[in-house]
């Protein structure tokens, strides 16, 4: 019996740059606390333009987790945080009851034609933290612990795995690992958390004998170790954690335990309610509430 429950290939969308959306999907709405998963790029942006810039927009009920393989992004938020996001670093922004942020492509990245390539995840906050104060935490690449197992190099970005633990403070049990391998490398993915998935960023891997091509999110069966073997040089992610403490409603940039919270957030953003969604210092633009 296979320990691969589902293979999700996602849909590629153009939002000013290409993104592949893996979660939510029909086969799996969530994996542990992860409720949203976009693979962006790689893409180069022209100098003197605003291509790729994401103007100020709101969030509730979630934490955004941005991780880059190449390029850089400039994060600004309504807490007054200004942070350059660089490859290998973990950037954890918990919206709580409401936060506004923007993500823009730095001028030097445009001018040097450095490809921007990375992952944008959302983690649903526990119900008891939906109304908490928003926060932003940046963890530098060199702070991420590393494990070397044969030909596999593993950076543990959240949680504990492969004998090391990440310093990233999470709101619920969470697993997030960035891995790379040499050709033929083998790795056992233990059943340390209840819900797990493997995403193949580059190259191909075999999971319990099933070939996974780039852009595939494999949902793993709970309670069983899974054998990974690299067909060639690969880059992959392992994600998961404890199941959510209940269902979530997701609409646009909002995640909540009730439709009422979503509707209240719509009204607050549409009415530019600064008590819920304060301005970002130095920013004047904003993304209007979508019609649908």
UniProtKB/TrEMBL annotation:
Gene3D superfamilies: Jelly Rolls. Its cofactor is Fe cation. Transmembrane segments: none annotated. Binds 1 Fe cation per subunit. Residues 17-123 form the Pirin N-terminal domain. Fe cation binds at residues 57, 59, 101, 103. CDD domains: cupin_pirin_N (cd02909). GO terms for molecular function: metal ion binding. Residues 177-270 form the Pirin C-terminal domain. It holds the Pfam family Pirin. It comes from the Bacteria. Keywords: Iron, Metal-binding. Belongs to the pirin family. This is Pirin family protein. The lineage of its organism: Bacteria, Pseudomonadati, Pseudomonadota, Betaproteobacteria, Burkholderiales.
């Amino acid at each position: 019996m296979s320990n691969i429950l589902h293979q999700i290939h996602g849909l590629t969308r153009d939002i000013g740059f290409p993104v592949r959306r893996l979660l939510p999907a029909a086969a799996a709405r969530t994996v542990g606390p992860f409720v949203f998963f976009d693979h962006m790029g790689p893409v180069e942006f022209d100098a003197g333009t605003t291509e790729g810039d994401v103007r100020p927009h709101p969030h509730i009920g979630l934490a955004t987790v941005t991780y880059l393989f190449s390029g850089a992004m400039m994060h600004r938020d309504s807490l007054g945080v200004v942070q350059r996001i660089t490859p290998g670093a973990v950037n954890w922004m918990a919206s709580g009851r409401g936060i506004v942020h923007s993500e823009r492509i730095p001028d030097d990245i445009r001018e040097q034609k450095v490809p921007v390539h990375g992952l944008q995840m959302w983690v649903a906050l526990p119900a008891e933290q939906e109304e908490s104060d928003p926060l932003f935490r940046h963890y530098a690449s060199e702070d991420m612990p590393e494990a070397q197992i044969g030909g596999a190099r593993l950076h543990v970005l959240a949680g504990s795995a492969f004998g090391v633990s990440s310093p990233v403070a999470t709101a619920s049990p969470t697993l997030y690992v960035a891995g790379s391998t040499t050709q033929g490398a083998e790795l056992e993915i233990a059943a340390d958390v209840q819900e797990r998935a493997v995403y193949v960023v580059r190259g191909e891997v075999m999971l319990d004998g099933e070939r996974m091509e780039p852009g595939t999110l494999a949902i793993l069966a709970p309670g069983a170790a899974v054998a990974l073997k690299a067909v060639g040089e690969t880059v992959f992610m392992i994600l998961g954690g404890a199941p959510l403490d209940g269902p979530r409603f997701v609409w646009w940039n909002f995640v909540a335990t009730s439709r009422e919270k979503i509707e209240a957030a719509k009204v607050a953003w549409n009415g530019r309610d600064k008590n819920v969604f304060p301005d970002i210092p130095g920013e004047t633009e904003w993304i209007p509430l979508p019609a649908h």
